Amino acid sequence: MKRIIFFIICIFFLKLNAKAVDYAILVSAGNATTDDVFSNSEYWYDLFLAYEDLVLNEGYDPANVFVFYGNGTSFNSTRARYQLALHGWGNIVDFDNAYNTLNTQFANIGAIVTNNDNLHIRWVVGHGWGNSATTVTTPSTAGTGRDPINVDDYWVLLQNRNLCVRETEIIRIVNQIPNYKRRKIVWMTCHSGCLTGGTNNMNNDRSVIITASRWNQVSSAYNLPGETIHAQLNYIVTSALFGEDPLGTAFNSDNNGDNVINMWELWNEADINAIMTSDPQLGNNGNLANRIYIDEHLVIENTNINNDIQYLVDDYEFLNSSLQNGSDVEVDIDNGFEINGTFNAPVGTTLNIHP
Amino acid sequence: MRKINHFILFAGLCLFSLVTMAQDVNYEKQILFNLPTKNVEGICSNKDDIYIRTVDSLYVISKNGKIKDKKPTTNKYLVFEGAKSYSLEKNIITDGDNKIIIDLTENIEKGEKVTKYLAKAGDSFYTCVLDTPNMSYSSNIAKVIYGNEISMFCYIVGIPAGLYCDGDFLWYLYNKSAKNKNGMLRIYDLKSGNLISEDEIPVINPVGIYVKDNQLFTYSNFSGEFVQLTKGGK
Question: How many angstroms separate the CA atoms of A241 and A293, rounded?
Fold first, then answer.
């Protein structure tokens, strides 16, 4: 008999380290004032969708999702899809997006996140530009922006405050959270590729960053037919993670057939998707992007894996799944591993679990 | 207890009005005349004449709505300053004698951008710099000074539909992404670039704007009406 077939119910249960906490920070660098308006309404729409995905789909505790938006109050959209009542939520916004608020609260969050925790940061919507003509330090009033002259010439704009913040300063603010096990960043502005290269960037061996465009490229919006306006990157990234777009249409960006989306697949979908007019960048040192996930508690459900795949997550579960002959699955787990329901791993497959 | 409740209600209403920038402002709308076109690209005025440009024609209309002249024209955005006139065409600003004042070609066309609408205040022109065909987040209202010095005044919101400047403020008219909706009007402080107000106006698909004697004038590409708006009316 060439195959050894396991029919197992809860045959394997492994518990390791103290449970990590998954923190997320969402920053929307503007304030929606009305519906269906380019460069305005997305500040709320794309934030709402990102929050919805984290809380409803990725398993994040709302208490650990810190939302910075506008004046600190949720937008009262006329579109039912973007109303808090859709999910029975109260105000999902924790803080306004003032420079001082960002600076103070990132420091406060930095005081609670440990090396055992995971961190997801998403600069959901914003403008980015260069400002090489000035030596002004941060923050400064907007009004002299130009295209960057190099990869380290990058500013972000807090649009509702008419205030821009230099790259070195925004990196300093973000790095006030120095402790984390894995940091997963998604950054949507024009010229956001500046954060993946040059002297000033957000790369390190624990971080992966996806940006909307190259350092010398602008980013654009997408008017979803039959729906409304979104930033291109957000439409793709959030739809890919959620598994469907804002209209409820299925959206599949799985590249390796395991039905879960790692950071490389997320970037790849943005890179190849037909609606994208810029070139999203992937910044990380080492082979990390194709191993880590915004969801740290993966459930591989009703799936037949037929690839060599690596995972680096807190929790991993096979549920009614199997490995095809020749596949090699490496799982680095920090917390728990489970196999539930049926599981089929024929001779010739490799399943390595690394605590 | 009732007083406390009233105070909470009042505070809530104040907060709501602060966080909701787009105000529901009443405008008195007066239809001045109709034109048999829904392809207007821009409007402006000089003395008592109104200039309405479509994709291929320029109407000169008296204030009572009588068409004084209609002639073929190219894709020019016009603005008047006293007796002087200026136009924007293919990223080049010229004066009334067709003399080139500012050539933005090199600055603008590197990124396949185009300029639309033209406003003037003192030594500065204002125009919308747009990426085509994409809705790029780099699209902006640019300030252009004699000598080709160009800088960003502010980023674009919505779909641009008109600009007007009076030396202190910049009026920016735009449309929503959804079709056949009322237009939106922003007013910026010219010196600081700060947004002063944002109002919805009771004109569907408006295009072009100018301000005269505290009255707003615009054209509806939905109804074919040239309208006058008085803020604060009913």
Answer: 10
Read off the pLDDT of residues A233-291 as tens digits, 9 standing for 90 and up: 999 999 999 999 999 999 999 999 999 999 999 999 999 999 999 999 999 766 899 99
Tokens of A276: 């994208």
Of B18, B156, B194, the CB nearest to A39: B156
Q: Quick one: closest CA in B to A231, which residue? A: B137
* CATH number (domain holding residue B95): 2.120.10.30
A73 touches B: beta carbon within 8 Å: yes
Which tops the pLDDT comparison, B25 or A325?
A325
The nearest alpha carbon in chain B to A126 belongs to B137
Candidates A28, A91, A22; CA nearest to A234 is A28
Which pTM value belongs to this model?
0.90
B116 within some domain: yes
Count of the separate structural domains present in chain B:
1
pLDDT at B109: 62
Provide CATH 3.40.50.1460 ranges for chain A: 21-295
Q: Would you state the pLDDT for residue B193?
A: 85
Q: Is residue B175 part of a domain?
A: yes
Q: Which residue of B has its CA nearest to A188?
A: B137
Q: How far apart are CA A193 and CA A190, in angstroms?
A: 8
- Cβ contact, residue pair A220, B137, below 8 Å: yes
Mutate which of A39, A136, A163, A219 to disrupt the B interface (most B C-beta within 10 Å)?
A39
Residues of chain A found within 8 Å of residue B198, distances taken between Cβ atoms: 33-34
Pick from A45, A64, A8, A49: which is nearest to A296 by CA? A64
Conformation bin of residue A11: beta by default, left when phi > 0, alpha when psi is -120 to 50: alpha
A91 touches chain B (CB under 8 A): no
Q: Indicate the average pLDDT of chain A.
A: 91
B16: in domain: no
pLDDT value at residue A1: 38
Which residues 202-221 of chain A have a CB within 8 Å of chain B?
218-221
CB contact under 8 A, B136 and A190: yes
CATH number at A21-295: 3.40.50.1460
Q: Give phi and psi for B110, each to the nearest 5.
A: -55, -40
